[in-house]
Amino acid sequence: MSKSVTDVICPFCGTLCDDLEVVVSDDGKKIEDIYNACAIGAEKFMHAQAAGRVTKPRMQQPDGSYKEVSYDEAVDFTARMFYKARKPLMYGWSSTSCEAQSIGHEIAEKSGAIVDNTATVCHGTTLIAVQDVGIPSCTLGEIKNRADRIIFWGCNPCHAHPRHQSRYSIFPRGYFTNKGHKNRKMIVVDPRDSDTAKMADYHFKVEQGRDYELLSALRVALRNEPLPETVAGIPREKIIEVAEVLKSGRFGIIFFGMGVTQSLSKNHNIDAAIMLTKDLNEFTKFSIMPMRGHYNVTGSGQVLGWQFGFPYAVDLSRGFARYNPGETTSNDLLRRDEVDAVFVLGSDPGAHFPISSVRKIAKLPSVCVDPHITPTSEISKLHVPVAFVGVEVGGNCYRMDNVPIDARKVVDPPEGVLTDVEFLTRVNTRLDQLIGGK
Amino acid sequence: MTEFLIKNGFVFDPTQGIKGDKADIAVKDGKIVKSSDISSKAKTIDASGKAVMAGAVEIHAHIAGPKVNEGRNYRPEDKLFTYTPKSAGKRMAGGFSIPTTFKTGYEYARMGYTTAIEAAMPPLFARHVHEEIKDTPIIDEGALPVFGNNWFVLEYLKNKEIENTAAYISWLLDVTKGFGVKVVNPGGTEAWGWGLNCLTIDDPVPYFDITPSEIVTGLIEANEYLGLPHSVHIHQNSLGNPGNYTVTLDTLKLAEKFKPKNKFGREQVLHSTHLQFHSYGGDNWGNFESKSKEVMDYVNTQKNVTVDTGCVTLDETTTMTADGPFEHHLTELNHLKWANVDVELETAAGIVPYVYSPDIKVCEIQWAIGLELALFAKDLMRCFITTDHPNAGPFIRYPRIIKWLMSAEARKERIDTFKHSAKMVEATHLAGIERELDLYEIAMMTRAGPAKALGMSSIYGGLKPGMDADVVVYDFNPQKPHKPDDIEKAFSRAAYVMKTGVPVVIDGEVVNNGNKRTLWVHAKVNENPQVMRDIKDKFLRYYSVTQANYDVSKHFVPNPYVIEVDAT
Amino acid sequence: METVTLTIKNQPTLYLEADTITPDNFSGKKASEIAALHAFEGRDQFTLGKYFEVSGEGGATAADTRIVVKGNVSRVKYIGMKMTAGEIVIEDNPDMYTGAWMQGGKLLVKGNVDAFAGIGMKGGEFVIEGNAGNYLGAAYRGDWRGMQGGVIRVKGNAGSDIGYFMNGGTIIVHGNTDVHVGTHMEGGKIIIKGNAPSKVGGQMVGGEIFVYGGIDVMMPGFKYVQDEDLEVDGENAKFSLFYGDTGERHPKRKGQIVYGKLHLRN
User: Are B305 and B255 in contact (CB under 8 A)?
Assistant: First the structure.
C-alpha cells in the first residue's frame, strides 16, 4: 500500500510551492510519484532517491582521493577547523532550514566567522538597493487577487520559476481578477527573446547594460519631462506608451531577476526600479518583488536579520556584527585572501563562483556539507553528506515574498545519515568543548 | 535556590495599595509567597534604600516579526558603531531603533521589564513572529494578530454576524498562537490595497460595503462575546494628521455602549494605543497644536477605555505600522526610504525612518503631547507609558520618559533648549503643568495598569502572594533628595531583576537568559461549520498558501503559556 | 607639532584593522603607549607594536600630532578613521576605509587607496596622489547622509560609485572615473578632469558635477540649459550646463524647482 502526503513544500526555487502531493511507499522510505510539481521540483525529489547516494562523510587524502570517515571524526575535524581559524567564511545557507541557519550562526559567533548566503552572487544587490531606498512590495496572493499590470524585468520565470505565472502572476483568477490573464497586461524587459518575452503584450529588448537608463527614462516619462529619441535602444514613443499603460492600471507589480541584479549598474538598477515603483504609487498602486532563487535564501536573510541586523555578508570576526558588501562578501574575501577557512552548507560555490575564488577554496581548510557530491565537495577537505531538507527532514523556509512556510518531511533519510541540524548541533557542542579546553 | 527574600526595600505595588512602605518580598518556586512560607535557607537580597516593584509590562511595542525585521535589514546604518560585543552567556547585540532579538530581550530586562506584547502580527506571517519571539531571551511575550482589515471580518461584520466573527477570531488565535484582537486603521489598510485610505470612521471601505465604525463596534462585540483576556486594541484611523483628534473622540465613543464581559478582571472594552499620534489639532503643519486635553477629558470620564501614550523621545528612529497608507504619506513628507508589504486578505505594513529633531517645531509639539496625555490622566491604572516602539522612539528611552513625567524641572530644561520653544509652548499645555508623578503612579502606568488591561493581573503587574515572582529592585531611594537624571539612571539599569523566580539581571547586567514563555489564548467556541467552510473556501480561491501550511505548529512555541477561554 | 613614525615590520597574515592610527588616539602618548594600542587580525586582538616600529611621540592634542606611516601597508585597513585634526602621511598604498568618517585634519596618501576611502566624510583635507578605488567619499550602506564636508583630491583615477549620496564637500579627480558618479547626490561638488563612462548624476537631486573629458552615454534625464564661463578649481573654462535628473524628485525654492547641475566642458 502506498500513502499520499499532501500540502508538500517544494524545496527548489523561491516560489516555494506548497501544494505538492507525494506518493510514498508504505515503509516511508521510497518516493513513488509526485503531483503538482514542475519538472525541476519533481526532479529534486527524485534526485534524493537516486542510487549511489553518499551516506558517510569523506575526507580528502594527500593524493586527492576521498576516504570514508565516521560522523564523529567529521564533527571533530569541522570543530577543530573553526577553533583554529581566525576568520573563517561560512557560506551557503540557502538550501537548508532556518533552524539549521540558527545553529550555524551560534558557531559563527563563537569562531568569529563571516556568514554569507547565496544572495552574494544573486540578489545581494537587491538588498543593497532596499537599504538605500526601501521597497514597496506585497505577498504573492495580492498579485493573484488584484494585479492587472505585470512586468518581468531581467527574469524568465517560464524556465527559472516554472509555476510562478500559473500560481500567482499571470493566469490565476483572484478576488478582483476574475478574468485571469485577460485582466492583465504583461510587459517583459529582456535583451533576449525568452519564452517569457514571447508571451508579453510589450517586449522591450533593452540594450545590454542600459537597464538603469531605461528605468530612469520611464521615471522621466512619468514626470512629463523631455526624453532623447531613443534610450537603451527603445524609441521614446514606446517608453511613453508603456509609462501610460503602467499608470492606467489598478495594481501593478515589477518582478525582476538576475538579468538586472548582476548586469552593469547592479544595485543601482534595482534602486531605479524601486524608485519607479514608488513614483507609480502617486498614480495608482504598484509593488516590486525580487524573483529569489534558492528556496530558502530569503530565510537566511531573515534569520541573519533578527539575530544580527544584516541580511547577508555578516562579519562577526570582531565579536560584533558588521556588514559591507564589497568587503564582507564571499568573493571579495576569497579574492583578497581575507579568510583562512571555508565552511559550505546549502549551496555549491564550486559550480557558481568564479574560478579564481574556487581555487582559493581548494587551498584553504574546508568543509562541505551537502547531500550530494558536488563541484564544491570535490575540492573540500571534508565532505559531509546530510539529509535533504524538504524531502527527508522538515524545517522553516521563507518564500520570495518573505512568507514563512514550514517544509515537510516526506520520507526517511538513508540510515545513519544526519540532518543539517543534527550535524551542526554536534559541531557546536564539540566547539564548546574545544573552547573550554577539552 | 528556589527561595528568595528581597528585604527592606521601599515597595510600590498598586495591586495591594502599598505606596513605598518598607516591606519584604518572599519568593518560592517562581511565585510570590507570604514571608512566613519560606524557610531560613532562602537567599536574601538586600534592597534597603532601594525601590521595589513588580516586573514591568509592555502593552504595545513592535519587537518581532516581518516588518520589524525588514526594518533591521534595511537599516544597516542603525547598527553602525552601536554594537555590544558578545560576552559569557550573552549573544552579541546590536541596533539602536530596531535592536536584534537578543538585544531586545536584554534591554527590556535591564530596565526591569519582564513581559511584552508584540503589537501587530500579520496572521500569514505568524510563524515568523514566533521564530523571533523564540529568539528573544528572558521576557514573556504575546503577539496580537491584526483583524481590522481582514476579509473574513469585513464580510461577516457587513452582515452583523457577531457569532461567526467570534468563531473566526477563535480559529485565528488558535492557528497563529495569538493573544488578542488588534485593529490597525480599520478599513483604511484594505483601501490601501488600491492606494486609498479611510480617514474618518464613516469612510466606506472600497468594495466591502462597510465602514471603520462598523468594523470597530463589531469586533468589540465579538471580543466580549468570547470574553478574551484583552480588549480590542486599536490603532485608530487618520493617525498622524493635524486635526485628527475629532476622529479619535468619535472612535472612543463607539465603546460607550459596550460592557466588559470576561473572567480576567479586565474593565475596559477598548484599548486605544499610541494616543499621542491621535491627539492633534490644527488643519496643517503650520497651525498644528495639542488636543491632549480634549482627548484626556473624555478618556477620564470613560471607565471602559484604556490608553497608552506613544511618547516621542526626540531620537532618530524607524517608524513601522500596519497602517500602510500612513507610511506612504510619511515618505512623501520626509523622502526617506519606504518599505511596504501588502498581505493578501489580511493587512499591510509600511516602514520609514524618521528623525524627531528638537529643532523642528512639529517634533517638539509631538513630544509635549505624549507627556501631556499622562499628566492629564486622572486614573493612571488606565493610562500606560509607551513609545509605540520604535515609532515615536526606541523603548530603551522609557527611563527618560519616566524622568520627564516625574520632574517638572527636567521638562523645563528640555523645553528651554528647543529651537522653537516659544512656539511650542503656545501650541501645547505642557509648560503650564506642574504635576509630577510619583513612583506609585509610575508603577500603575508600567505594571499594574497594563497587566490589568491585558487581563493578566492574576500573574503580572503586582507583588501579591500567588503572582509570578517578577520582581525588580531599582537603585533609587524615594526618601532622599535626587536630581532628575538620577531617575533616568536608576530605571535604565535595574539593580536586580527576577523573572518567575530566576534572577536575570544583577547590577544592571544580564546574568541569566531566564525561562521565557509565549502567551497565547485558546478560546473555545461552539462548532461552526459555516466559518470552517468559509475558511476552506478562501484558502482554495484567494490565499497563496494551502490551509494546512498556514497553521503555526507547536514547535514554534516551545514554552507556551496558554490562557484558556470558554465561550461555548 | 610632534611626529610619530610607524614603520611596518611584520605583515599580517590576514588583514590588519588599525582604526587606532589617528592623531586623536596618538596625542599625549609616548611611543610605548602607542605601540600598546590595539589592532585586530581576524578575531584576535593584538597591538600596533606587533606590526609596527613606533618612533617619536604624539603632540599634546590631535592638532599637534603628525603621523607618518612607512612601508607596505596594503593589508592595513581603517588608517585615519574618524580623525578630527592633525596630520597623517601614508607613504605607500593603504587598504580599505582609509580616512573613513574623517572629520578634520589632513590625510595624505602618496600611493593608491582601496575601496571606501573617505566614506561618510564630514571634514578635513584628503589627498590621494595615486588612484582611488570604488565608493570614494560615498555613504555607508543604507545611509542617506553621505559625504557632508571636506575635500578629497585624487591625482590619478577613481573607481565606481564616487560621491554616492553626497550631501556636501568636494571631490576632485584629476584622471578618469568608472561608472556611477554622484548617484543620489543632494549637495556638494564633484569635479572630474578626465572621462566618466556613463551613469553620471543618475537620481541626482541637487549639487554639482563637472566633467572635463567625455561621457560615453548620458543619463536620459538631463536637459541642456545654456553655455557658461566658469572658474573651477582655479582655472577658467567654458561649460555646457544641464539640469537633472529630471526623473527624480526636486525641492522647490521660492517657487522655482531646484535641479542638480551637470557641467560638461566644451
Answer: yes
